[in-house]
């Protein structure tokens, strides 16, 4: 068994697609209309056959509440691995991304946390 798709709730699929592809650099894999929403997945440019990230609409009240509460508590919705957290931090800062935690060493891992503008905090990590 392996993880093939993981999802993140987003407030606006178009805005999320733009942020996750143009700002973060993920590659759109699927964009399929499903009723009033779409099945939008992205993959790492380095592993286009790898795990897909689904931009899941937070249309359900439980999804909205979950997203709002973990954001308010400062809990990242997911984590992405990067080769160099400090370099990625600088790149994203230069693109206007707002960080809630600067690169911080925690044992063998360095992490940073940013706001994805779509209702989530995202953690990046370097092992």
Automatic annotation (TrEMBL):
Domain VOC: 1-127
Stored Pfam families: Glyoxalase
Entries under InterPro entries matching the protein: Glyas_Bleomycin-R_OHBP_Dase (IPR029068), Glyas_Fos-R_dOase_dom (IPR004360), VOC_core (IPR037523)
Protein name: VOC family protein
Protein's organism: Cohnella pontilimi
Lineage: Bacteria, Bacillati, Bacillota, Bacilli, Bacillales
């Amino acid at each position: 068994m392996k993880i093939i798709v993981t999802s993140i709730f987003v407030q606006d699929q178009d805005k999320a697609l733009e942020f996750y592809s143009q700002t973060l650099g993920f590659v759109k894999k699927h964009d399929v209309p499903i009723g009033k929403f779409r099945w939008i997945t992205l993959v790492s440019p380095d592993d286009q056959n790898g795990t897909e990230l689904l931009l899941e609409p937070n249309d359900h009240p439980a999804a909205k509440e979950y997203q709002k509460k973990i954001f308010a508590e400062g809990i990242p919705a997911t984590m992405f691995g990067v080769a160099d957290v400090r370099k990625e931090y600088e790149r994203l800062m230069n693109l206007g991304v707002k960080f809630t935690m600067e690169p911080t060493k925690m044992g063998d891992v360095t992490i940073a946390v940013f706001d994805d503008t779509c209702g989530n905090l995202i953690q990046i990590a370097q092992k």
